[in-house]
Amino acid sequence: MFFAKLHPLIVHFPVGLLVSGALFEFYGKVSKEEAVEVAGRFNVRLGFWCALPVFAVGFLGMLSLENTQKFQDFLGNHLMAAFATVLFFLLALLISRYGGGRFQFGYYFFLGLGLVSVLTTGFFGGELVHRFGVSTPGFIN
């Protein structure tokens, strides 16, 4: 249960980095402001690397939960969206690193998918905490 209580406390830092980074990159690209785009790229990379241990803590927390029948659908959607988030940002970073600038559309495509998936993950995570009380003091495991 320790990991289930820890996950909601630490998840907001990488989420903030990934969301702000993706938005900064899109804004910097459209407005042709290189400094904003570079700041966004930094946030995306730092957010991705910070998201990996948070993902592991969340997965361990999920394994420690019992009696998940009433929120099983939300938990499954949260997990699938979290997997998608890590995958999409990983693909974007791999394209950025090894694409040599030739696959710029693919980079922004996966960056956009990553942005949507991290917001979706947050929605389902918020529902788990606020609607079902998962990992809150009143939660009975």
How would you characterize this protein structure?
With 141 residues, the protein is mainly α. It has one domain. The chain has 5 helices and no strands. The N and C termini lie close together (8 Å). The relative contact order is 0.16. The model has no long low-confidence stretch (mean pLDDT 94).
The helix-strand sequence is HHHHH
Assembly state: single chain
Biggest β-sheet, characterized?
none
- Rough shape? elongated
Q: Determine the N-to-C terminus distance.
A: 8 Å
CA radius of gyration is: 16 Å
Unreliable spans are: none
What is the helical fraction, as a range of percent?
A: over 70%
Can I get a quick summary?
By secondary structure, this protein is an all-alpha fold. It is 81% helix and 0% strand. The chain contains five helices and no strands.
Supply the key terms.
141 residues, mainly alpha, 81% helix, elongated
Set down the secondary structure blueprint.
Elements lengths: L1 H9 L1 H20 L2 H31 L7 H27 L5 H27 L11
Helix pairs in contact: 1-3, 2-3, 2-5, 3-4, 4-5
